[in-house]
Amino acid sequence: MSVIGAGPLARTAALVHTLLVTGVLVLLTGAAGIVPLVLLDRDASNLPLVAVCAIPAGPALSAALYALRRRSGDLTDLAPARTFLRGYRLNATAVLKLWVPFLVWEAVLGLNLAAGGWTIPVAAVALLAALWQANALVIASLYTFRARDTARLAAYFLVRTPKVTLGVAALAVLAGAVVVLWSEAVLALVAVVFAAALLRTARPLRDEIEERFVR
Q: Strand locations in the chain, DSSP E?
């Protein structure tokens, strides 16, 4: 007979609870950007405003990754809200150091795409930057490195862990499809699911960092 909080049903319930609470907190901490973003017209001229609206999403997603990584499978030991807020407090500054320049860069590339010319190379650079940022987000959320070291590790693992890179690329395409087919609001509602998928996809990256770079 399973001890309360240790069986498969309890672990599933704990996961669902953690996802729900974390998802709500992502929406709350990102609301300052989500609300105006949904109201913006889908016009290339609004890309700088889109970048500004997306700033709160970085720390929110980082806190979600932190909370999901440290979640307990025991129903008697659940505190996802406290863990999320701790991750937000610990990682917001480090994440923003890389998140804000990334958003600026993507906005510039988006404006270039809208202007026409060099479409494929510019789109490829934009996707590569997004993949790099996904690695950087995972690293900055779970480990303590200087910003420049996080940036270097994120670039290194693009090549070092190709399965992770391909998996993250698939998630990026899926996220883009959600926005195109529905809206940014729908993506925000399921952001915690994407965070969980990113955390799982990045497992080889996390394993190597913990083996080689974390003492």
A: none
Alpha carbons 130 and 165: distance in angstroms, whole number: 10
Residues 6+ apart with CB under 8 A from 28: none
How many whole angstroms separate alpha carbon 129 and alpha carbon 101? Answer: 11
Structure tokens at 37: 């973003």
The domain segmentation of the chain, as residue ranges, is 8-212
Give me the tens of pLDDT residue by residue for the chain, a chain 215 residues long.
344 456 778 778 888 999 999 999 999 999 999 999 999 998 999 999 999 999 999 999 999 999 999 986 666 668 999 999 999 999 999 999 999 999 999 999 999 999 887 899 999 999 999 999 999 999 999 999 999 999 999 999 999 999 999 999 999 999 999 999 999 999 999 999 999 999 999 999 999 999 998 86
| pTM of the full structure | 0.94
Residue with tokens 């993507």: 106
Three-class DSSP category at 56:
coil
DSSP 41: -
